[in-house]
Amino acid sequence: MEHKLSIYNTLSRKKELFTPLHEPKVGMYVCGPTVYGDPHLGHARPAITFDILFRYLNYLGYKVRYVRNITDVGHLENDADEGEDKIAKKARLDQIEPMEVVQYYVNRYHSAMDALNVLPPSIEPHASGHIMEQIEFTQRILDAGYAYESEGSVYFDVVKYNKDYKYGKLSGRNIEEMLETTRTLDGQSEKRRSVDFALWKKASPEHIMRWQAPWSMGFPGWHMECSAMGTKYLGDEFDIHGGGMDLMFPHHECEIAQSCAALGKDSVRYWMHNNMITIGGQKMGKSLGNFITLEQFFTGQHSLLSKPFSPMTIRFFILQAHYRSTVDFSSEALEASEKGLERLMEGYARLQKLTPSAQSTVDVTGLKASCGAAMNDDLNTPIVISHLFDALRNINLVYDGKAAIAEKDLSELKEVFKLFMIDLLGLKDEVNSAEGTEAYQKAIDLLLNIRLEAKKNKDWATSDRIRNELTAMGFEIKDTKDGFEWRLS
Asked: Which pLDDT value is given to residue 2?
C-alpha cells in the first residue's frame, strides 16, 4: 500500500508520514467520555475529529480497530487523586446505583453521536469492566520499581521514573519546575511528592464503587484505565492515540509514563489531539455559565442560542475549522454554517438531477486529487470543503442551462461529492434522509405536478392552495423553467 497520509504527531511536534506498525492493520485508541452528565459540544469535537480519521483510514484500505473507552470509575472531582468519584457523587445525590448513572448517560451519548453521524467504534470498553487488567498493570509497575504503596493506595514515583525516562515529553512540562511550584509540606499527603499520581486508591468508607486488590479495597486511578485497556485490545505497541488537547496533561502524560514503566517502551507511535471549542474566547465550562449541551443545541433551549441547530449544522461547523485550531462558538457562526451547509446540500441535490451533454464547457479535472491532497495533509477538512464549494459553481451553471457537462465529467463530479462530502466528511441531508423516503419524495412531487397542471389550466385556486398549504407545513417551493424545486426548511 502506498502511504500518503501525513498527520501531526503531538509527541514529535511535527507532521509525519503515517506508517502503520502492522500494515494493513491499524490500532487506534481515543479517550471517550466520562459519563456523569449530558454530552456537550466539547464531546462532539473529538468524536467528529477521530470519526473523520477512522473513515479516511478505512477508505485508504486499512483494517482499523478503533477503541474508544467509557470512563465510569476513578475520575475524581479535581483530577488530582483527591475528592469524590464524579459518577459516585452523581449516584449518591440522585440516590441511585452508579451503573444506572452510567447507563443513562451512555445511552444519551450514543444517541447524540448517532445524530451527529459519528460511526461507532470497533470496541467500546468500560473502565469498570476492566478492573483486573488495571490491577495487573499496576502490579507490573510496582515490580519494575516505579511505584510505591502508601496506606493502601499505590502511587507512581515520577521522580524515579524521570531518571530513567523522560516525564513531560508529550506536554513539554519540566519536572524540576513542577516540583518547585507544587511542593507540599511533609505529612500532608500519602504521596512522597505532590507530582506523583495514583495508580490505585484505597476507598473511603462512603465510596460506593470499590473492588478488592492486593493493596486494599479500592478503585483504579483515572489514568490507569487507558493504559490497561489500550494494550489489552491493541497490544503493547499500537499506532494512534487521540483525544482532546485538554487531556494532554496530566492524563496522556501519565499514560505514557505508566506504559513505559510497565513495558519498558512507549506504547503509542502517533499522538493526536484536537483543540478546544471556546465561547467568547473562554473555554466552555459550567462555572462560567457558557456550558451548552448537544440537546440544547438541537432544541435551541439556551440563552446563548438564537434558534435550534441541527446535528449536521454542528458537524459542519466543527469541520469548517482544522481539528488542531481553536474554534470560537457563537450563535451567529452557527447560523453562517447552517446557510453554508444548505448551499452544499442544495448543490448536491442539483448534481443528481443534471443530464449529460455531448461535451463539457466546465472544467472539473483535478477536483478529486485536490480533495485527496487536503485529506492527506493532516485531515485538512476546511480545504476539502472549500474545493467542494468551488465545484458548486460549475454545478449551478450546468443546472441553470448556462454550461454543459459530458457524461464522464458528470460521473466524476458525482463520485467526488459522494466520496468526500457523504462518505468521508459524514455530512447528510437531514431533512431528506430522515423523512425523505422514496414514497415521501414521490408524494410531494405528485402534489407539485398536480399544481403545475392546475397552473396550465389556469386553475389558480388549486395551484395557490397546494403552494400555500405546503409552505405552511415548512416546505420551500421554487418554480423553475423546467418545473419546480422543493425542500423542507
From this structure: 57
Q: Answer whether residue 316 shows pLDDT above 60.
A: yes
**Is the CB of residue 47 less than 8 Å from the CB of residue 8?**
no
In the chain, domain spans:
6-274, 279-431, 435-488
Cβ atoms of residues 282 and 270 within 8 Å: no
**pLDDT over threshold 70, residue 80:** no
Residues ≥6 apart with Cβ < 8 Å to 180: none
Q: Quote the CA–CA distance of 227 and 137 in Å, as a whole number.
A: 8
Q: Are 257 and 251 in contact (CB under 8 A)?
A: no
Cell numbers representing residue 32 in the block: 471517550
CATH topology of domain 279-431: Isoleucyl-tRNA Synthetase; Domain 1 (1.10.730)
> What does the DSSP 8-state code read for residue 422?
I
Q: At residue 256, what are phi and psi to the nearest 5 degrees? A: -60, -45
Closest CA to 69 of 258, 183, 222, 257: 222
Within 95-222, where are the H helices?
98-115, 131-144, 158-164, 175-181
Q: Kindly report the average pLDDT of the chain as a whole number.
A: 91
Check if the beta carbon of residue 6 is closer than 8 Å to that of residue 18: yes
- Give the C-alpha distances (Å, rounded to integers) separating 155 from 4, 139, 189: 42, 11, 11
Q: What distance in Å separates the CA atoms of residue 310 and residue 222, rounded to the nearest whole number?
A: 34
DSSP reduced 3-state for 366: coil
Q: What is the pTM (predicted TM-score) of this model?
A: 0.88
Assigned CATH for 6-274 = 3.40.50.620
Looking at the DSSP bridge assignments, the partners of residue 63 are: 25
Describe the crossing of helices 86-94 and 98-115 by its angle, rounded to 10 degrees.
110
What's the distance, CA 360 to chain centroid? 40
| DSSP characters over 97-131 | -HHHHHHHHHHHHHHHHHHTTPPPPSB--BGGGGH
- Condensed to tens digits (0 to 9), the pLDDT of residues 104-126 reads 999 999 999 999 999 999 999 99
